[in-house]
UniProtKB/TrEMBL annotation:
Keywords: Cell membrane, Membrane, Transmembrane, Transmembrane helix. It holds the Pfam family FUSC. This is Putative membrane protein YccC. The chain crosses the membrane at residues 41-59, 89-108, 114-132, 139-157, 169-189, 403-424, 430-447, 454-476, 482-501, 506-526, 538-556. It is a multi-pass membrane protein. Signal peptide: none annotated. One of its GO terms (cellular component) is plasma membrane. It comes from the Bacteria. It is found in: Cell membrane. InterPro entries: PHBA_efflux_AaeB/fusaric-R. GO terms for molecular function: transmembrane transporter activity.
Length: 743
């Protein structure tokens, strides 16, 4: 039987070989790595180079404590060159202040060590208070003033005769460390603050545009909006720190520092404007849809203008395109607002509240578009020559809690006093090291968002440093010879510490590892292999960490009910500031101060969601009311000198009475004061409407009628007071129309 014929073979297709990525792909990957992990490894390489240079010079110059030089290098070194120079400048100032105080204290109390310790304790408490109060580089100067005083003054408690020489040596060692860190940071792979500032601005604008787009279309949940607002507040504080450091870096940023400050303030103002608009739109969504439907075309117009810029970091051409579109859509927006007002009049002709809501929302939307246009103009003018750009004097005004700052200072002073007295009474050989470590840890913890967690991280880094230092000092150093081999064995520890410092959530471990490793395990010009001294020194550091943890947990902990009450009072006091403070620059001062308080609320209420929610409600109410009050004052200040706008008019007297009622409500929130404020705002709205109808020559033209705009701001105040999610909502059922306020 013949075999069956085989099936015909199909032609095989050639399978393409796996090729290497293209050259462009490698370039893109390289640029991405350079922007992310590459910067981290560049910082680590610069840290190793600066440490090697500083250590070689310290040994070559035979300085008494090379460890002080290395500690200075690792404290001063930062990824951006401007931050290194700023920290160096403030470290020198702080060190000079601390050394001057120490020499004066030793001259006064050289014969009595308890009085000398008491003077140092008071100085440390005051410096810690300053470090907690100022969250820019002034904080660093205060911290170093206290630390340097301890560095020289504590050894002088036992041996005052050598204090002046010790002060001179410490200053020389600190100056050497600062010079090495500064030279390496500026000369080797410099990372300028200019790029970081531009990237930070682009990220903030990208996130804000996405939030505004979703909010205008009704897609932004309240929880997400609150979280974004809190994050923007923290970003505002961080941006101001970067801007203040940039003046040390290059003339380009130094000449534009005012414009950068104005840009940060304009972004805060824009966020505030959108906050008021979002809150009003959220309240309108819970009512009949007539107002929201009439406003929808105008909202969609602005949202459509924002849409092309979403989803990526905006570049200059994107900003210019958006700016031109906003300018071109101005008349279209006004036409849409007029058409919506006519539509609302046809659907609900008798609803006065609906008309007020519409006018208020339309005014806020128009101002939002105008403020965004001004912000984009300011950002596009950054690169203009300073002679052609407009002059600006706006600054960020921080508003720290004095009570929290003094609490940190008192806690630090008590810790140092307790450890110092224990050292004096027991004659502990490492008592000075323990007291110095306690002072430094207490000061560092006062500047941290979570002091207890930071102290625990310092303790963990110190423990790892003790293990690495013991292994290095007693198993490795006796077997090596020469500076090159010393650098080789120190490099792994320095690399690990520098990497940890670049991670914000792990920075405490890096600080604990590097500071105490350099202090206890680094060999001096005359090495000492003393196991008892080494163990005693690291035991002193660990005891100091433990005492600091106990102090921030038990002794005046920062998260306490009285602290929260003080924060709430400070938030309410911002309303009083908006009502009575001078009007020049008030908007920027109000926004920056309130956002600084919001950042403190986020920090001091970690793990307390109920308290945090209540304080956030007060923050947002103060923001709404305060900004409406400021706009109301600005509108009155811009009134022309016409008879119906005179100070003696009934509607202006009613607005002043409203201001007094709001001051009472801010300082003592209760049902009676809320009722008085509601009655005052209703009276002011009524009189403003009467003046608009009977006195103003153009009562129907909203964009040219100051009284209609004033009525809309008064309506914002009224709706904020009546909001169901307001912290005043609990007083609404008891609020009754008050008797007429004659004051």
């Amino acid at each position: 039987m013949p075999l069956a014929s085989p099936l015909p073979l199909r032609p095989t297709r050639s399978v393409p070989r796996q090729r290497w990525p293209s050259l462009n792909a490698w370039r893109r990957a390289g640029r991405e790595w350079a922007r992310t992990d590459g910067q981290t490894w560049a910082f680590i390489a610069k840290a190793l180079l600066a440490a090697a240079l500083a250590l070689w010079l310290a040994y070559r110059l035979e300085l008494p404590q090379p460890s002080t030089v290395l500690v200075t290098v690792f404290i001063v070194l930062q990824p951006q060159s401007g931050q290194v120079l700023a920290k160096s400048f403030y470290r020198i100032l702080g060190s000079l202040a601390g050394l001057s105080f120490t020499v004066a204290a030793i001259a006064l109390f050289a014969q009595e060590r308890v009085l000398l310790l008491g003077a140092l304790v008071l100085w440390i408490g005051y410096c810690t208070r300053g470090a907690a109060r100022y969250r820019d580089f002034r904080s660093y100067a205060f911290l170093l003033a206290g630390y340097t005083a301890c560095l020289v003054g504590l050894p002088a408690v036992a041996q005052p005769q050598g204090a002046f020489l010790q002060a001179v040596w410490r200053l020389l060692e600190i100056a050497l460390g600062i010079c090495c860190a500064g030279v390496v940071s500026v000369a080797i792979l410099p990372q300028t603050t200019r790029g970081v500032l531009r990237r930070t601005l682009a990220q903030r604008l990208r996130d804000f545009l996405a939030m505004a787009h979703d909010g205008l279309l009704g897609r932004l949940e309240a929880e997400r909006f609150a979280a974004l607002s809190a994050r923007f507040a923290a970003d505002s504080v961080g941006f101001e720190s970067l801007r203040s450091a940039s003046v040390f870096e290059e003339p380009y940023l130094r000449r534009r520092s005012g414009r950068l400050a104005a840009l940060g303030n304009r972004l805060m103002l824009l966020n505030t404007r959108f906050h008021a608009l979002y809150q009003l739109l959220a309240r309108l969504a819970e009512r009949p849809p007539a107002v929201r439907q009439a406003l929808a075309p105008a909202l969609e117009l602005i949202a459509a203008a924002l849409a092309p810029s979403l989803g990526r970091l905006p570049e200059e051409r994107d900003l210019r395109r958006l700016n031109e579109r906003l300018a071109a859509e101005r008349e279209t927006l006004m036409a849409a607002i007029r058409a919506g007002r006519q539509q609302l009049a046809r659907t609900a002709p008798a609803a006065e509240v609906d008309r007020l809501d519409y006018d208020t929302a339309a005014e806020l939307l128009y101002r939002f578009a105008e403020d965004l246009h001004l912000l984009l103009n300011t950002q596009l003018e950054l690169d203009l020559p300073t002679s052609t750009a407009p002059k600006t004097r706006e600054t960020f005004t921080p508003l720290a809690s004095r009570a929290v700052a003094w609490m940190a200072g008192v806690r630090s002073a008590l810790v140092v006093l307790g450890v110092g007295l224990f050292w004096i009474e027991t004659a502990w050989p490492s008592g000075a090291a323990c007291t110095l470590a306690a002072a430094l840890i207490s000061a560092l913890a006062s500047t941290s968002a979570d002091p207890r967690r930071y102290c625990l991280q310092l303790a963990g880094g110190t423990l790892v440093g003790a293990l690495a230092g013991g292994l290095l000092q007693f198993q490795v150093l006796p077997w090596i010879d020469g500076f090159a081999l010393l650098l080789l064995v120190l490099a792994p520890v320095f690399t690990a510490g520098a990497w940890l410092i670049t991670r914000p959530r792990l920075a405490g471990y890096g600080t604990g590892l590097m500071v105490w490793f350099c202090s206890a395990a680094l060999p001096g010009n005359l090495p000492r292999y003393d196991a008892d001294l080494f163990c005693n020194t690291y035991l002193a550091y660990l005891v100091a960490c433990g005492v600091a943890v106990v102090a921030v947990s038990v002794l005046l902990p920062p998260s306490q009910p009285w602290v929260w009450r003080r924060l709430e009072a400070a938030l309410r006091e911002r309303l009083v500031h908006a009502i009575g403070a001078p009007l020049a620059g008030l908007s920027g001062r109000f926004d920056s101060g309130l956002r600084d308080l919001l950042n403190q609320v986020q920090v001091l209420t970690v793990g307390q969601p109920v308290v945090q929610r209540q304080l956030l409600r007060w923050t947002f109410l103060s923001l709404e009311l305060g900004h409406a009050i400021i706009e109301l004052r600005l509108e009155q200040a811009a009134l022309p000198p016409l008879p119906w706008y005179r100070e003696q008019r009934a509607w202006r007297l009613a607005i002043r009475a409203l201001g007094r009622a709001l001051v009472r409500l801010a300082r003592q929130p209760d049902a009676a004061n809320l009722a008085r404020a509601l009655g005052a705002v209703d009276q002011a709205i009524l009189l403003a409407h009467q003046a608009q109808r009977h006195l103003e020559p153009t009562p129907g033209d909203f964009d040219r009628s100051p009284l209609r705009r004033i009525a809309s701001y008064l309506h914002v105040i009224r709706t904020s007071l009546l909001a169901p999610d307001s912290p005043l909502a609990g007083y609404l059922p008891q609020a009754r129309p008050p008797a007429r306020d004659e004051g």
